[in-house]
Write a structure and sequence with these properties.
Blueprint: E1 4-5, E2 20-25, H1 28-42, E3 48-51, H2 58-66, E4 75-80, H3 82-85, H4 90-103, H5 106-122, H6 131-141, H7 148-157, H8 165-178, E5 183-190, H9 197-205, E6 207-210, H10 218-233, E7 236-237, H11 239-248, H12 253-267, E8 272-273, H13 275-281, E9 288-289, H14 290-299, H15 302-312, E10 318-320, E11 323-325, H16 331-356, H17 366-372, H18 374-377, H19 393-403, H20 408-426, H21 431-444
Length: 446
């Protein structure tokens, strides 16, 4: 079956499901959340559900996969398969195991055991040996000799796993070959590598549901993740801190989850995380959207506009929506040209609407603009026979909204000064100071 994006609507019934269903993604919380929905759907007909945690012996899980249920005609066997599929290099696995161990929490220890087992499997060190011998060999081969001691501690306390990963891998391959005869394996995995080995076999004969967060759902999903993790760790997480962390991690749910774990560990049980704590403890990885600067300019919000202008020249990534902007060569003069073009659009659309007696303000909706204003803008201009408002109607709608708080005279003056600013920048004037003065003048009406 093909690999498809997860949604509750694509989950088959138990009878229609293949023998192996894998739910995969790069954020554990969302993978677990999706897997719970899949399990609920598959078990609707009364299937026996067996859930195994990471400490369960491989042989026990294998027996559940290969033997029929005594209590039901349907059996759903759920467990995490990341240790079989792999996702990281041995060095990364070792680092992650030690980081999990150092958290000192039950969840941290489980993570350490999971990473340590994956490390041993990746290095073919599952044949036995003392914790000291295995840690020494793994540390040397992963070129992380400094982590041999903490890995030894992990291996000393790690619950024994009978049978090892090979037993589970073989059981899943048997299940894939015989298809769904009353037993379905519901697997979860974090960031598995591209379809090779066992993952490739599951893609060919089973079903892989990929979990990702839609841009429209991002804010709500990330808030849900943050509150759930904070509750587990008994930490108070301010709403402003969640938003600050979301911005700082540039919309990456995986990076958000990783930084959140660090903040919760830093706060400790009974602690609190504020927006100021995020600013102090999390490096701001966010890119800056030039459209957000234009919006601040349109609101005549000097503080936000100048703050965003500084970010546009801070060396971080710059984008226009989803499109990246190259800031390597002549960025100050190129930016000045882009700003002048936006002001020209604002002036052009405002002048045209004043001529026709139509107005657009910040509260005008796009459907209203399309119905009442766009037809006027699309009319050809005599004697040219074409409209100067070519291109996306939505872009002109935004330009009209931004122009609503300015007079035509103010915009004309701002456009005229753009040429002076361009000359200053080409004559090596300090870019940020020069552009800040220009933007401040536009907003102030000077």
């Amino acid at each position: 079956m093909p690999k498809i994006s997860f949604s509750p609507s694509v989950v088959p019934s138990f009878d229609a499901a293949p023998s192996v269903v894998l739910v995969a993604g790069n954020v554990e919380f969302f993978v677990e959340e999706a897997a719970a929905k899949v399990a609920e759907s598959l078990a609707e007909g009364g299937a026996e559900v067996l859930r195994f945690d990471e400490d369960a012996p491989a042989e026990t899980i294998s027996d559940a996969l290969l033997n029929r249920s005594l209590f039901s005609a349907q059996r759903l066997v759920q467990f995490d398969v990341s240790r079989l599929l792999g996702s990281e290099t041995p060095a990364q696995l070792l680092l992650q195991a030690v980081e999990g161990w150092e958290k000192g929490t039950p969840a941290g220890k489980r993570e350490a055991y999971r990473r340590a087992r994956a490390l041993l499997a990746a290095l073919n060190l599952t044949g036995g040996g003392t914790p000291e011998e295995l840690a020494s060999s793994a540390g040397k081969r992963a070129k992380k000799k400094d982590l041999i001691e903490p890995l030894t501690e992990i291996l000393r306390e790690m619950p024994e796993e009978h049978g090892g990963p090979a037993v589970l891998t073989e059981a899943l391959r048997i299940l894939l070959q015989r298809e769904n005869d009353g037993t379905v394996a519901l697997l979860t995995a974090m960031s598995p590598p591209a379809g090779v080995g066992l993952l490739g076999e599951i893609e060919d004969k089973g079903l892989v549901l990929e979990v990702s967060i839609d841009e429209k759902e991002e804010a709500g999903a990330i808030t849900r993740l943050a509150r759930a993790r904070a509750k587990e760790r008994e930490v108070t997480l301010d709403p402003d801190a969640i938003e600050r962390l979301r911005v700082a991690t540039d919309g990456s749910s995986a990076l958000f989850a990783a930084e959140l774990e660090k903040l919760l560990a830093w706060a400790g049980a009974g602690g609190r995380v504020r927006a100021a704590d995020v600013r102090e403890n999390v490096e701001d990885e966010s890119s800056e959207d030039i459209y957000a600067f234009y919006e601040a300019l349109g609101r005549r919000d000097a503080g936000d506009a100048l703050g965003r202008l500084e970010r546009l020249f801070s060396g971080r990534g710059v984008r226009a929506g989803e499109r990246s902007i190259d800031t390597d060569d002549y960025w100050p003069t190129r930016f000045c040209g882009m700003l002048a073009d936006e002001i020209r659009k604002m002036l052009l659309v405002r002048s045209r609407l004043e001529e026709t007696g139509r107005g657009v303000d910040a509260s005008t909706s796009y459907p209203t603009f399309q119905a009442r204003v766009a037809p006027i803008l699309s009319e050809p201009v005599v004697p040219f026979g074409v409209s100067p408002f070519a291109g996306s109607p939505y872009a002109w709608f935004k330009a009209a909204q931004r122009a609503a708080r300015y007079t035509t005279r103010e915009l004309a003056g701002a456009l005229a000064r753009a040429a002076e600013v361009d000359v200053q920048l080409r004559n090596s004037a300090p870019p940020l100071e020069t552009l800040s003065a220009y933007v401040g003048g536009i907003i102030g009406g000077n």
